Amino acid sequence: MSLNDRIARGLESGWKVTDGATLTANHTAEADVVIVGTGAGGGTTAEILAKRGLSVILVEEGRLYYQKDFKMDELTSYANLYQEGMSRVTKDGAIAILQGRCVGGSTTVNWTSSFRTPDATLNYWGRQFGLEDLSPDAMAPWFAGREERHSMSPWDMAPNINNDILRQGCEKLGFSWQIIPRNVKGCWNLGYCGVGCPTNAKQGALLTTIPGALDHQTHMYHGLRADRLVMNQDRIESLQATAMASDGITPTSVQVTLKARHFVVAASAIGSPGLLLRSRLPDPYERVGKRSFIHPVNASVAKMPKLVDPFYGAPQSVYSDEFNFSSGVDGDVGYKLEVPPLHPAMSAGVVPGHGDAQVKNMASLPWMQSVIALLRDGFHADSPGGTVSLRDDGSPVLDYPVTDYLWQGLRRAFYTMAEIQFAAGAQRVRLMHLDSDWYSSWADAKAAIDALPMELHRVRLFTAHQMGGCGMGSDPKQSVVNSFGEHHHVSNLNIHDASIFPTSIGANPQLSVYALAARNSTRLAQRLRT
Amino acid sequence: MSNLLPRHENQDAASLNRRSFLRTGLGGALFLGTVSVTASLSGCATAPADRLGAVETRMDASYRFRFLTADDIDLFEALLPAILGSALPAQPNARRMAIAGTVERIDAGIHQFGPANQKELRQLFDLLNFGLTRITIARVWSPWPQVSTEQANGFLERWRSSGIGLFNNGYMALTKISNVAFYGYQENWHLSGYPGPPDWAVQALPQFRTS
């Protein structure tokens, strides 16, 4: 393997990286800070603390995969890099959850879209949750710092056709559209961000903050599952963890105890509430796991007259916020419009069907285009979000009821997406709904959408953005942490991931996580060094 | 995930779970709590099929099943011709191989799903394999090895169009697992007009070099 690869080179140079599968006996280790999770939040925290001279242990349940493993193959990547082998769903099975489970977390498999938290969202947090210190002005330098760290800038190559069709449709209808900022350096424009960047262009945690932390003596365990935080009086004393076998799935009998002065949980909006609940940490107002948000996604596919090849090229480069804040921040639910890449397995999983009808659907993949709508949930009394709880085996599960308020938004999004696709010249459009046919005109599609039952399991729903569940706020009765991610009731615990968002973001969340984690880790480093 | 909770909590949670059974997800239907037990008492295969002898099956004898039982394999052998339709080769031997390979990839995929979703799928497959529930819930009268493609299609259509969300969910689970395992596999990429990763990139990238 080429030593030009940052990870291969680092491992060669003696980084402290332990694969849980290689452990044969129980053991104990200690550091200033133990961080659970290596995604956007954990990686950022580790690098900042380690560079300030603190000793850091990083814990990742998934395994370390890097360039040598990224062979642009969907089946291998979905099985290894995603939570529950890409089969994660909400409790009732109605919403598919796309979420990373590997070193780098979801930043290893995301589609690189890099948005600042919208001003309207930050201002809403100030008003509703007492988070005035996260105003757009106060956050601007943190966003700028992370944009530089992760090489984020608006995509300067031409959008692929899949994305350009969204642009064309918006142009025709007079809807606003913009170019998406991406966190890439020397991108080859291949289109495989979702299965692990094969060229090391993507500047996710895996190639930025994780190597930065490891260069500064951080000890990273992967294939190690955080079971519970153990309290001694009012402080956390240790993290109890279980080593996983090399399949990444089967727990071994090896137990690891990690001790520290301070603990940072950054295990995602599903994993972090799960860990806190298993640990039975103080939660006097029962806030842990509540107000979980997901940017519920519905989708529409179009058959275009010319080749789209939706599997090639930067997966996301054009978006429209025409409908995101058009009813105000807290009116009818807003939605962001984007485009997903369509590879064969992804398409076969997203487009419902079987038999010869499905054979025809799949055969038209090179001409297929898709638009997705990401609903901005959590800004309205009728969008209280879902709840993370524990299954009887202790694993976390998200229950997400879809309210009428959200169904109305999903129906409006169906209209918008179909109208855009026809405006851009689609021959036929099909909504991702069990009852949708292929429609050959906007009028037909519109009439069909009028009548589509908006019901769980019939509407195909997805989420790639999990947020909330350990929400931040100034009032401990309403929140789990304060605006610095500091736990209201446990003095040596911070939470540094998307679980602290008190609503959804209204944009792909990675930069929001990076920026808040950078801000809160800088403060934490000061605290721990004095 | 058996070690995640202390033992007594596990039991509390289990009894709580029984009370909320009717409301839970994919497998949480109706009768399922007892189906697995009953199925094993009545002689259904409930252990992973492990290695199947090449003589009595079409399977690659070197593949070791980790989740699917012999009955599950019968189920998928009956469903896949209906799910995949004319995407399956017509030539009998090639067709058998394509089905066998897809069943193996389904097994490998489910292994990676982890314990929670495996449990849900176990319940779904047991429900479909156990005679009484196969007849009453799936309305499939014959055991799966005797089910025609037409009958399998009828079952899929009933669950797809049902007004009961759990059945829609079962339809999605069965078709999604099968479609992903089939269309996502390199040898079937041509069926979706997908040429694979660009050759120039494969040539240029170090992870594809064999030496």
From TrEMBL, chain A:
Domain Glucose-methanol-choline oxidoreductase N-terminal residue range list: 78-297
InterPro entries, alphabetized: FAD/NAD-bd_sf, GMC_OxRdtase_N, GMC_OxRtase_C
Top-rank taxon, per record: Bacteria
The entry's keywords: FAD, Flavoprotein, Oxidoreductase
Domain Glucose-methanol-choline oxidoreductase C-terminal: 386-517
Keyword NAD: no
Family, as annotated: Belongs to the GMC oxidoreductase family.
Name of the featured protein: GMC family oxidoreductase
Organism: Marinobacter aromaticivorans
UniProtKB/TrEMBL annotation, chain B:
Domain of life of the source: Bacteria
InterPro entries, A to Z: TAT_signal
Protein name: Twin-arginine translocation pathway signal
